[in-house]
Amino acid sequence: MTKAEPLTEHAHPVPVPGWLVTLCRWSATIGGTALLAMMLMTVTSVTLRSLLGWPIPGDFELVEVLSAITVFCFLPWCQIVGGNVLVDFFTMKAGPRVNHALEALGDLVYLAIGALLTWRLWHGAVDFHSYGEQTMVLRIPIWWSFVIAMPAMALLIVTTLFTLLGHVRKAAA
After folding, report:
1. Beta partners for residue 141, in sequence order
2. 79 near 156, Cβ under 8 Å?
3. What are the C-alpha distances in Å from 12 to residues 5, 57, 159, 162, 172?
4. What are the φ and ψ backbone dihedral angles of 141, each rounded to 5 degrees?
5. 134 strand-pairing partners
6. Do 7 and 150 touch, CB atoms closer than 8 A?
7. 29 contacts: CB under 8 Å, gap ≥ 6
8. Which stretches does DSSP call E strand in 69-152?
9. Over the stretch 67-103, which tens digit does the pLDDT of each residue have?
10. Rounded to an integer, what distance in angstroms lies between the CA atom of residue 42 and that of residue 69?
C-alpha cells in the first residue's frame, strides 16, 4: 500500500536546474526593485502633494510602467516555486501520479498562454516602437517597458517547460 500524501494546498514540487532557479530569483529581484521604486515614488509624490502642492509629474505613468514590469518579472518565480493558484478540492485525496498529471496539463495550458502572450507582446513592442508611442506627461517611449517584459516572458516559458517535463516524469514514474 502506498503512503497517502498529506492534504495540502501547495503544488507538488518537481526538480528544476539550479541555473533556472537563479534566473527566476534574479527576475523576481528586478520585479521587487521595481515594486519598491514604485512604492517610494508614490509615497514621495503624495507627501510632496500634501505638504507643498508639488506632486511628482507623471507619477501615474511611472506606476503604470513599473506595475507591468513588476508583474512580468514575478511570473517565472511564481511558476518555479509552485505559487500559482491551485484548486485541489477534488484532488486532495488523489495519488501523486494523478496530481502530477493534472499539474502537467495545467503547465501545458500555461505554456501555450505564455507563448501566445510573448508572441503578441513582441508585435506590440514593434508597433509601439514604429509609431513612436510615448507616455503623455513624461514622454517615455512605451516600448521601453517591453525590453524587460519580453525576457521575463521568455524565462516564464522556459520555466514552465521545465516544470511541465518534471510533472510528466513524476506522473509516469
Report:
1. 134
2. yes
3. 10, 46, 15, 14, 14
4. -60, 130
5. 141
6. no
7. none
8. none
9. 999 999 999 999 999 888 777 767 777 788 888 898 9
10. 16
Environment class of 149 (CB within 10 Å of its CB; exposed 0-12, middle 13-18, buried 19+) = buried
Residue written as grid cell 518537481: 14
**Residues 6+ positions from 45 with CB-CB distance below 8 Å:** 55, 56, 59
Q: State mean pLDDT over 24-48.
A: 96
pLDDT at 18 over 60: yes
d(C-alpha 106, C-alpha 166), whole Å: 13
Measured CA to CA, the distance from residue 133 to residue 125 in angstroms comes to 10
Distance of alpha carbon 67 from alpha carbon 149, whole angstroms: 11
Give the C-alpha separation, 20 to 77, whole Å: 10
- Predicted TM-score (pTM) of this structure: 0.87
Length of the chain: 173
Q: What is the CA radius of gyration of the chain?
A: 20
Task: Report how far apart the first and last C-alpha atoms of the chain are (Å, whole number).
Answer: 16
* Assigned C-alpha cell, 84: 500559482
**Does the pLDDT value for residue 30 go beyond 90?**
yes
